[in-house]
Amino acid sequence: MLFAGALLCAVAIAQGVEPGPKPGPKPGPNRSADVSVDAAFSEVDYRSNTVFFRDVVVSQGGMRVAADEARATGLNFDNATWTFNGNVRIAVEGGGLTSSSARVDFRGNRMTLATVTGTPAQFEQQRSVDGSMARGRAGSIQYQVDAGVVTLSNEAWLSDGRNEISGQVLVYNIRDQQVRAGPQPGQSDRVRITIRPGESAPAP
Q1: How far is CA 62 from CA 7, 33, 110, 144, in A?
Q2: Cα 168 to Cα 184: distance, rounded to the nearest angstrom
Q3: Count of other CB atoms within 10 angstroms of residue 120
Q4: What's the rounded Cα separation, in Å, for the pair 65 and 84?
Q5: What sign for the dihedral angle of Cα 159, 184, 140, 79?
Q6: Which spans in the chain are helix H?
Q7: pLDDT tens readout for residues 88-109
Q8: By the 8 A CB rule, do 181 and 14 touch?
Q9: Whole-model pTM?
Q10: Rg (Cα) of the chain, in Å, rounded?
Q11: Which residues pair with residue 130 across a beta bridge?
Q12: Which residues lie across from 152 on neighbouring strands?
């Protein structure tokens, strides 16, 4: 099965039917720690109040962003947006995002939103149910850190290694490990689901 009951949830939403009740959200990583920046090279432009980093790693609690380059307006994380380029790797709960470029928003001294783009941007997470890998790709992937939700858009595709689901927008909860899919408002794009039956267990 794909993500336990995820296919049933995806079909229900694609048909305009509300899924059944779900358990409450699971706790996310503790991100109350300070923001740490480690780089091989940094350059500060005081006239424009911009900072440039090369071979940089930015981390806070269990959240980690690494890239070849990064630019930011100052080092105030209360309300800031950082841009990363080149070999971008973002650690998420049990997995990661990879892309050629990314934007990370900080609000209230906390990482709140990461948006990665690429050809394609990619996502993976080890599923807690059976240890298999959930993998996805899309033109753009948005990670809402507090909610633990990954939204894949623009030719989105998601798989557990055997079964697949694709559409213009797929929303995956990395804590509940459930996927929702359906057309965007005003569009008629349909969800495509491929289910590959597993091998039969050998007779005793």
Answers
A1: 29, 9, 12, 14
A2: 8
A3: 21
A4: 9
A5: negative
A6: 6-14
A7: 999 988 899 999 999 999 999 9
A8: yes
A9: 0.77
A10: 19
A11: none
A12: 141, 170
